[in-house]
Amino acid sequence: MDRLIARTDECYQLAEQHFRRRFPRPDIELDLRGQRAGVAYLDRNLLRFNGRMYRENQEHFLQHTVAHEVAHLIAHQLYGHRIRPHGREWQGLMTSLFGLPANRCHNYAVPSRRVTRYLYRCACPDPMPFTAQRHARVARGSRYLCRRCGSQLHFTGSRQQG
């Protein structure tokens, strides 16, 4: 975490020298999970980073991902709410200020998640797999009709792991 904080501060110092003004330092959390390497919460002045991706790609992560997220906060503080997240203001900070490519996405390895599908049936011969979210909606009372035969889909009691 110390290196993340130090790199964040380094990015802010570059911005402060360039723009000749102070920027409030963000809170930093290393609790992000999933496919995103980092997230900037603009109104909360908060940066969240993916701990697994940081550990597996430390040098690149510190150089690129930290600068990427800091650029979001600085762009917001300089230009306000109306700019696009990866628009020209953000791109300018990445290339001119940090001297890095303005890449929108990372290419770190992301392990695939095991996904559960809930099998539903209608009058058609093949079952229809539902996501966990759609299955939960059915449990709360939503009804779904088959687009092919028009009859209501009912949970079979079976699940698929994929």
From TrEMBL:
<dbReference type="GO" id="GO:0008237">
    <property type="term" value="F:metallopeptidase activity"/>
</dbReference>
<keyword id="KW-0645">Protease</keyword>
<feature type="domain" description="SprT-like">
    <location>
        <begin position="6"/>
        <end position="156"/>
    </location>
</feature>
<dbReference type="Pfam" id="PF10263">
    <property type="entry name" value="SprT-like"/>
</dbReference>
<dbReference type="InterPro" id="IPR006640">
    <property type="entry name" value="SprT-like_domain"/>
</dbReference>
<protein>
    <submittedName>
        <fullName>SprT family zinc-dependent metalloprotease</fullName>
    </submittedName>
</protein>
<keyword id="KW-0378">Hydrolase</keyword>
<dbReference type="GO" id="GO:0006950">
    <property type="term" value="P:response to stress"/>
</dbReference>
<keyword id="KW-0482">Metalloprotease</keyword>
<dbReference type="GO" id="GO:0006508">
    <property type="term" value="P:proteolysis"/>
</dbReference>
